[in-house]
Design brief:
- This protein is an all-beta fold.
Length: 565
């Protein structure tokens, strides 16, 4: 018997095929129907792409948008960076991206990743303008005690900007590192708070003026244009004019115009130029010129001392000298009989020799003693301590020794037998011999062992000590003298000594400064010079060697103007 199988099934999932068997032997088993599974879809070689999440985070001061992006594998994501007021972008990182303006674009995304943005307060330039700086001079401004900017005369009237910038809300203060030689510079609008814009209204106004250094019987003058002039005794060639003839009026020394510091001694002179070089001329019998020998230089003209070019200050006494370098170290040479070189002995030196390794911010040289100030406002000294002018010592001091335990000293000066100083609070102090009232103490007190305050005023600015007399300047430009007045050295119009600070006046009005002459144990120093705020120079006292530069006159008891070419 032949049996035929056929059929077709229709199911929800699709068409099912029923397999039919052909004729065959009867095996005694019933026939079977087998259902086949769904057939696979055709393979066209494609799959669904993977996707990843890119998350944006931002710190204070700005934002990133959008916050989240879903990106297919291999694609890039883009975000917009926004900043709050007074903020700017500091950095945007993550997902191997790049920032262009305010748009951040990632690299190809191959995994979940995060873009991070940080912000900072906007930074602004700090600057202004300067005027009045003379050719050959420069000044250094300092921003907030750290960032320095050096300007010269070519920067007059040109906007300057510090290399450092400051953030919104930051305080700023601009100061002078040091007054330029022959200048007094004032900073206007130099402090404030940055307020969302550059600071460009700082004004530096400089006023130039002559500087005078009276010696024993001769005087040096540094004019505002950087030229050097001299008058008075020239028996040792101390005027530097190539001869030994004295002068009664100021005469130019050479043709250079780059001098910045001067110092007149007893029979020699020294000066620094703008390049930081040290020069000297005149008597060298004790090595006081620092040339390494004791031979005099012929003709007597300025000669360079050594090869160093980092000198910034110079002072001279009786047959010795001291100078300060840019690193603050002090060097001495010449006569050392009273340990005035501060080298631990009394042997003379013929070349500059460093005084210990200490550093100092100012230097004052007296006839036989040296005073220095350190950054902490402490007063130190060495050399002759006659009448306790360096402290409670009756002998010479061979090494730098601190005067007392006070600090806050601003400026100081020292003479043969008395000293005076001004503190940062504007108070004036004096000590040493007082037999002529040079310490401003009346009542016949001959000597003052410790620093004693002069009155109760708090507006003193500078002080200069001479031969038994003192000149002191107040902040308002008023000048006072007290002590010995022989030869009219106080400039008061008479020759009477006084222990009371008495005003010294001139037709020029306010003073800028005053300097007393230098004295050795026998002669000299009985005269003084003053520089008025209008730049004129005035002289008074003894003029027997023409050291006042007033011509052939014996002397004057009131400030008399020095006529300059």
């Amino acid at each position: 018997m032949t049996t035929r199988y056929f059929g077709a099934w229709l199911a929800l999932s699709g068409l099912l095929l029923v397999s039919a068997c052909g004729a065959g032997e009867n095996t005694g088993r019933s026939d079977e129907i087998t259902l086949q599974p769904d057939a696979p879809k055709p393979d066209d070689g494609t799959t669904d792409p993977a996707t990843y999440t890119v998350t944006a985070t931002a710190g204070p001061g700005g934002g990133l948008s959008p916050a989240v992006l879903t990106v297919e594998e291999g694609e890039a994501a883009s975000f917009t960076v926004t900043t709050d007021v007074f903020y700017e972008i500091d950095s945007v990182t993550g997902c191997h991206g790049n920032l262009a303006g305010d748009a951040y674009t990632t690299g190809p995304i191959t995994a979940d990743c995060t873009v991070q943005a940080s912000f900072r307060l906007s930074a602004y330039a700090i600057g202004g303008t300067m005027e009045g700086l003379v050719e050959g001079k420069n000044l250094t401004l300092r921003l907030n005690g750290a960032s320095d900017l050096t300007l010269d005369h070519t920067d007059n009237g040109v906007a300057f900007t510090f290399p450092a910038t400051l953030a919104h809300g930051a305080d700023y203060e601009v100061t002078l590192v040091e007054q330029p030689p022959n200048h007094e510079c004032v900073i206007e609008s130099g402090a404030g708070t940055v307020n969302g814009a550059p600071v460009d209204d700082i004004m530096v106004v400089c006023d130039s003026f002559p500087v005078v250094s009276p010696g024993l019987l001769h005087t040096l003058m540094l004019k505002a244009d950087g030229t050097l002039w001299a008058t008075g005794d020239n028996s040792q060639g101390q005027l530097g004019l190539g001869d030994f003839d004295g002068r009664e009026t100021f005469t130019p020394i050479g043709e250079r115009s780059d001098w910045v510091r001067i110092a007149a001694g007893d029979s020699f002179s020294m000066a620094l130029n703008a390049a930081g070089e040290l020069w000297g001329w005149g008597n060298n019998s004790l090595g006081q010129l620092g040339l390494g020998h004791t031979d005099n230089v012929t003709p007597p003209e300025p000669v360079r001392i050594g090869a160093d070019s980092d000198w910034i200050d110079i002072g001279v006494g009786i047959q010795y000298a001291a100078a300060r370098k840019r690193d603050g170290t002090v060097w001495t040479w010449g006569l050392n009989a009273n340990a005035q070189l501060g080298l631990g002995d009394t042997a003379a030196r013929y070349a500059p020799t460093r005084v210990t390794t200490a550093t100092w911010v100012s230097l004052t040289v007296g006839p036989q003693s040296v005073q220095v100030l350190n950054a902490e406002g402490e007063l130190w000294g060495w050399g002759s301590s006659l009448f306790n002018i360096l402290g409670p010592y009756s002998t010479n001091i061979t090494l730098p020794t601190r005067y007392g335990d006070a600090n806050g000293w601003l400026v100081a000066d020292i003479a043969n037998s008395h000293a005076a100083a001004v503190k940062t609070d504007g108070s004036l102090w004096a000590w040493g011999v007082n037999h002529k009232g040079q310490c401003a103490v009346s009542g016949g007190l001959l000597s003052i062992d410790t620093a004693t305050r002069v009155g109760d005023a708090t507006d003193w600015a500078r002080v200069s000590t001479g031969t038994d007399f003192t000149l002191a300047l107040k902040a308002d430009g008023s000048l006072f003298g007290f002590g010995n007045n022989a030869d009219g050295r106080l400039g008061l119009g008479d020759t009477s000594e006084t222990a009371t600070p008495s005003p010294i006046t001139s037709a020029a009005g306010a003073w800028r400064g005053a300097e007393a002459g230098l004295r050795n144990t026998l002669e000299g120093g009985n005269f003084a010079f003053g520089v008025a705020r209008n730049g004129t120079v005035w002289a008074w006292g003894d003029n027997t060697s023409g050291q006042l530069g007033l011509g052939a006159v014996a002397g004057v008891t009131v400030p008399t103007e020095v006529v300059l070419e």
